[in-house]
Amino acid sequence: MPSIEEVWMNNHNDADGNIIPISQLDSGTFDRGHKIAKSKGGSNTDVVLQKKRDNRQWQEDYEHI
């Protein structure tokens, strides 16, 4: 899977289409996420930047049920 920086170099937008300035690019805020879930045929190379909360929200909610 490409690094956060490599994903940003290919596409400066997050999953919602907002431009991410290089000054805000850090692993504490953003993570890589699959454009199409791997379980639905996506690949590790087809990724986009997502805010960490958005990317992991479902899993966090699931664990608290």
Please characterize this protein's 3D structure:
By secondary structure, the protein is α+β, with helices and mostly antiparallel strands. The protein has one domain (4-63). 29% of the residues lie in helices and 15% in strands. It contains two helices and two strands, in the order αββα. The protein has helices at 4-10, 52-63, and strands at residues 30-34, 47-51. The chain has a two-stranded antiparallel sheet. The radius of gyration is 12 Å and the shape is globular. It starts with a helix and ends with a helix.
Order of helices and strands: HEEH
Number of domains: 1
Ranges where pLDDT stays below 50 over 5 or more residues in a row are: none
Largest sheet: 2 strands, antiparallel
Strand content: 15-25%
User: What Rg is obtained from the alpha carbons, in whole angstroms?
Assistant: 12 Å
Category from helices, strands and their pairing: alpha+beta
Q: Give the averaged pLDDT, no decimals.
A: 79
**Total number of β-strand segments?**
2
Strand order in the largest sheet: 1-2
Form type: globular
Q: How far from one another are the termini?
A: 30 Å
Helix count, DSSP H or I runs of 4 or more residues = 2
Q: What's the helical proportion of residues? A: 25-40%
